[in-house]
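To: structure desk
From: M.T.
Subject: fold request, one chain
Message: Could you run this one when you get a chance? Sequence is below, nothing fancy, just the single chain.
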Amino acid sequence: MQQLRALGISAQAEAIYLDLIARGSVDRSDLVERHGAGLDAPLDELAAIGLVERSGDKVLPQPPHLAMEAVAQRRTKEAELARESASLLSDLWTAGIGRQTYVELLPSLEVTRSVINSVQVDAEQRVRAMTVGNIASPTNPQIVGGLFDALARGVTYEVIYGTRVLQDPDALRMVQQCVDAGEQARVFPEIPLNLTIVDDRWALVAARTTVGEIVNSAAMVVHHSPFLTGLIGIFDALWRVSVPITGGTENTEVIGAPALETKRLLTYLSAGLTDESIAREFGVSERTVARRISRLQETLGAQTRFQLGVQASRQNWL
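Reply: Done. Structure tokens follow.
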């Protein structure tokens, strides 16, 4: 049992209280015999939250419900005060030292995850992002929690994916789900890091490197500043030259436009999938895929696969 320790109570204090619950009120000398000397500190801990009372040499346990309810109410008020203080202090920070210091380094992956999750709630109008994959868990692709809710309430999402992300079939299917829900997605061959820009107000920058079995990661929040303006410019430049990823909900063919199967093929090429992966998705041979790609390159005058994606985008085929 570690419920009291979860509230910051020491293991010794918790053990004493559980002993008192089992035995009722006892003499202090009896507690010393059972738990050793130095009981003042743990008994003070228990008395501070109303779980014991001391009367002379007697130590009496108190019912936990009312005491714990009082602790809960006090901590709720402390949390509200902390939020109010954070807002006020942030305003003061921005007005003072924040004018010079606009980069906030994040100390751990847990904090980075918390900031990522806050994006969907904090965003009011627009989120722009580019991604090389999940910084915290690169082998476990997941849709960010709250994304669909944010899309549903009208937040615009523009996301550039690196080709390495979309080479994972599971990740590609997740991207298609996001596009079908309203996300505007594009692909670019080499994305160097993860960047998320929220309403042009702040940005999260995260990167990771792997040397052997050692994984290093770093993340920071960039507030309103020339640095943030520069990051926005970088995103917009990459967005213009990236290739769109179309949704998978279309089932009709328009005169003068490619069939759905051709659009799917172009999407997979833009995502950087190999011929083997594409063939598996279509249920055909690699040779058939290669022939279709060659015909498309001839049709659009493209010499490389990436040029094929760019040309298809210019023709509004994606």
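Reply (cont.): The longest strand covers residues 202-211. Let me know if you need anything else for the meeting.
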